[in-house]
Write a structure and sequence with these properties.
heterodimer, B: alpha+beta, about 10% strand
Chain lengths: ~230, ~300
């Protein structure tokens, strides 16, 4: 599904964000990407979204080498990857329904499909009652659920969540994790960057830990950190 | 309905929604386009009017008068006439006798013609009147004819015309420079106004990029916004210039003719050109403005 082969990224200002990353993510996996701030998590996500290009190595998405894709084609790659951010990024002047429908409109979806899919994903995240509310009328958790709906409404095979619970209280964070787990159970591959130790430890999913631009640990049913790393 | 058509429909819809949502900023854009086009209109009308005056004056002065000595022989006269006729740019050469010249003068003087009655002898000379295609050819005629015997004086208004042409060239060049500067200034203003709306909608653009919108899809609504602002600005300025100039024309034209025997360009004649020029410049400024303001965001 996603494959990094010897990927390194050095920014123009000389900062070496990632070095020699090898990582294979299979279809249907739920992966936590953990590590301290500045470890390279964001860079790794930016590489998948083609916001940045690697200095070395190759990245495959659905078997296609996306390092060679022309700028003009980037939008079509992004349609395979739904994204959720810590700060939700909803359009304040659109209702919940419109925010989600927006993602379908821009790819030219049929109005009939829009009318069918948007209520479907909204009910999946339990927001059917709030379809006609504006973002400022919603709580933080509801914000994030709208953002998730928008990310999955076009049924991308991959969902990337960059610290999706970072701005939420623990109870709401768990609410979001349940939604993400449901989505994962329906077959969507999920890559989630996070600092939430308790969530990672309880979920018992694959954990990839990055530090100083290198993968220092990659284990099934992992935890946020080993006791050993505490001296 | 196929997919591309739906996308186009979305873009247009969003463009118009954007116009409405950003109507505050839009007002600023429209005002600056309108202001620029009105100034452009004034410059254009000035240039065209002065041009008109020049053409009019040129056509009134496009002749050379060759005054002949009384003692001229028929042979000499025929030679001069022939030479003049065979010069480039000459339409006709007509002999005017001193009697005819006096008649013409009497007519021109109208009520004061009685003053001429008291003359004992006709002081006017015989002359050849050379009609030219354009005053530019006057020098050719003068060069060719001036060596011949029997010519008393050659009269033409070359120097006046030269000054007039020079003046009109300056006005035209000046007008062009002003218009060019104004267009650049207005593109700058529009691109900055739209840049403010783009910055305000940075979020929206980012989201569009993340959900996989193509650059064309992102650009489209802003271009439509620019086009709408440009078009509205053009329409407003066309109306203002048309009615404003029409009013000015009606009040001033007759008086101007009495004073300077000059007519202004009629608003009706002008309006079709002004409408085309304003609309294309308005739309052009709107489009270029929005493209310029988006460039930075899309290449990021």
């Amino acid at each position: 599904m996603i494959k990094f082969v010897n990927v390194s990224k050095e920014y123009k200002n000389g900062v070496k964000a990632l070095s020699n990353i090898n990582l294979t993510i299979s279809k249907g996996e739920f992966i936590f990407l953990v590590g301290p701030s500045g470890a390279g998590k964001s860079t790794l996500i930016k590489l998948i979204l083609k916001e940045e290009n690697p200095t070395e190595g190759k990245i495959y998405l659905n078997g296609m080498d996306i390092t060679k894709v022309k700028n003009r084609k980037i939008p079509y790659i992004r349609r395979n990857v739904g994204v959720v951010f810590q700060d939700f990024r909803l359009l304040p002047n659109k209702t919940v329904y419109e925010n989600v429908a927006f993602a379908m409109e821009i790819i030219g979806a049929h109005p009939k499909d829009i009318r069918r899919n948007v209520p479907m994903v909204l009910s999946m995240v339990d927001l059917s009652q709030k379809a006609h509310c504006y973002p400022h009328e919603l709580s933080g958790g509801e914000h994030q659920r709208v953002a998730i709906s928008r990310a999955i409404v076009n049924s991308p095979p991959i969902l990337i969540a960059d610290e999706p619970t970072g701005n939420l209280d623990p109870d709401t964070a768990w609410e979001i994790m349940k939604v993400l787990r449901d989505i994962n159970r329906r077959g969507t591959t999920i890559l989630m960057a996070t600092h939430a130790k308790d969530i990672v430890d309880v979920m018992k999913q694959r954990v990839v830990a990055i530090e100083g631009g290198r993968i220092i640990r990659d284990e099934e049913k992992g935890v946020y950190e080993h006791e050993l790393s505490h001296p | 309905m196929n997919m591309n058509f739906r996308i186009l429909k979305n873009i247009i819809k969003q463009g118009f929604q954007g116009v409405w949502r950003n109507r505050g900023m839009g007002l600023a854009s429209i005002s600056s386009i309108t202001a620029v086009l009105i100034i452009l209109g004034i410059v254009l009308i000035m240039v065209l009017s002065i041009n008109n005056v020049v053409i009019d004056t040129k056509s009134r002065f496009d002749e050379v008068q060759i005054f002949l000595e009384d003692e001229i022989t028929d042979e000499q006269l025929a030679r001069i006439e022939n030479e003049a006729k065979n010069t480039q740019g000459v339409l006709s050469v007509v002999f005017q006798s001193k009697e005819q010249a006096l008649e013409t003068m009497k007519k021109q003087w109208e009520e004061d013609a009685y003053l001429l009655e008291g003359l004992e002898t006709n002081p006017l000379p015989n002359s050849l009147i050379v009609q030219l295609k354009d005053i530019e050819y006057a020098d050719l005629v003068v060069d060719k004819v001036s060596g011949f015997q029997g010519i008393e004086e050659i009269k033409y208004n070359k120097d006046i015309i030269d000054k007039l042409i020079l003046f009109s060239n300056y006005i035209r060049a000046g007008g062009l420079v002003i218009v060019a500067i104004l267009i650049l200034v207005s593109i700058f203003i529009i691109s900055n106004t739209i840049k403010i709306t783009v910055t305000a909608r940075r979020r929206e653009i980012d989201i569009m990029k993340y959900v996989g919108a193509t650059n064309g899809y992102i650009r489209g609504p802003f271009i439509i916004e620019g086009l709408v602002f440009g078009l509205i600005g053009a329409i407003i300025s066309i109306l203002i210039v048309y009615y404003g100039y029409g009013y000015f024309f009606n009040r001033v034209n007759d008086r101007l003719y009495v004073l300077f025997t000059v007519y202004l360009v009629s608003p009706k004649v002008l309006m079709k050109d002004i409408a085309i020029i304003f609309t294309s410049i308005g739309l052009g400024i709107g489009t270029i403005g929005s493209l310029v303001s988006l460039k930075r965001f899309l290449n990021a």
